[in-house]
Amino acid sequence: MKKTKKKDTANATLRYSNHAQNTAFYKLKTVLPQDGWEVASVGIQISSGQPQLRQGKQVSHGIVLDMEEDVRALSYNKLRKITGLDITEENYKSFIPQKNMEEFNRLSQHTPIKASKQDCKCNNTKQQLDYLYIRTVRAFGADIVLFNNYKDGYHVFYMADMNSGNWLPIKTKLVPTLEDIDALFAQYQGWDTFDIYDRLLTEEEICWFRNIFSAATDDPDDTWNDMYGRTHTDYEYSINGEKFVFSHNTVFSREMHNHLVKLAKGGLIVT
């Protein structure tokens, strides 16, 4: 799908580009679909203010039904002709009801992980996790997640492509540098098929995840797969400078992946 206008969502500890926000659409008028499509409408992509024609049709992926979309940019002049509204780039938000804007704003909010003070004390000081990198390629998408130390502290980085299983931006060099992450943000921030999060971690968050990692057992024989049988995971980590590399869909890698995604999106609250 086409790239949308980039936006600056950085703050002191988190920068992100949210797929749900980047695809949020307010329909102004239903129109006749073009040949090969079942439904169509014109409206505004809320995050950028870009007028769009969106068409859709139901498709089958095995036993799973999905909606395939075609998204085309329109000019404001074209949008005014179709809708009869005096809508412009400057006033488009006035045509979006408040409840829809509130729903749009909620798409950026994620529930923080709740942890006790004891959970956030570094328990195992002899075996320190240096980094953990996990890359998962699925039938209908791919993602990478990383816990690693950089010049400004530990980061958790998460990036997911919702559509293409062929997405491998870091194929030959698994663990990205901070410069790599900056380049990925510059290239993909604002795209409507991507989630991308980079969070600078607090000391409590670092200790919490190291404790989670230490308590889990990395058993290469404890594997899993999805219903399509086309998911593949590569992951590696380092403990006290000793590197371990695996290429399995393990229960361990799936659990660590889920913990890091939640940490990247929501951070941690110490209760």
Task: Give the tags.
271 residues, elongated, disordered N terminus, alpha+beta, seven-stranded antiparallel sheet, 13 strands
Provide an overview of this structure.
The chain is an alpha+beta fold and 271 residues long. It is 23% helix and 35% strand. The chain contains six helices and 13 strands. The strands form three sheets. The protein has a seven-stranded antiparallel sheet with strand order 1-10-9-8-7-11-12, with helices on both faces. The protein has a four-stranded antiparallel sheet with strand order 2-3-4-5, with helices on one face. A hairpin with a 2-residue loop joins strand 4 (50-61) and strand 5 (64-73). It is elongated. The two termini are 42 Å apart. Residues 1-11 have low confidence and may be disordered.
Average pLDDT reading:
87
Would you list the SSEs in sequence order as H and E?
EHEEEEHHEEEEHEHEEHE
Radius of gyration, in Å, reads 21 Å
> How big a fraction of the residues is strand?
25-35%
How are strands sequenced across the largest beta sheet? 1-10-9-8-7-11-12
Q: Strand pairing plus helix content: what structural class?
A: alpha+beta
Give the overall shape, derived from the CA principal axes: elongated
Distance separating the two termini: 42 Å
Instruction: Tally the beta strands.
Output: 13
Number of helices: 6
- Secondary structure: helix percent: 10-25%
Q: List low-pLDDT spans.
A: 1-11
Indicate the topology.
Elements: E1 14-17, H1 19-23, E2 25-30, E3 39-45, E4 50-61, E5 64-73, H2 76-83, H3 98-106, E6 113-115, E7 129-138, E8 141-150, E9 153-161, H4 178-188, E10 194-200, H5 203-215, E11 232-239, E12 242-246, H6 251-266, E13 268-270
Parallel strand pairs: 6-13
Antiparallel strand pairs: 1-10, 2-3, 3-4, 4-5, 7-8, 7-11, 8-9, 9-10, 11-12
Helix pairs in contact: 5-6
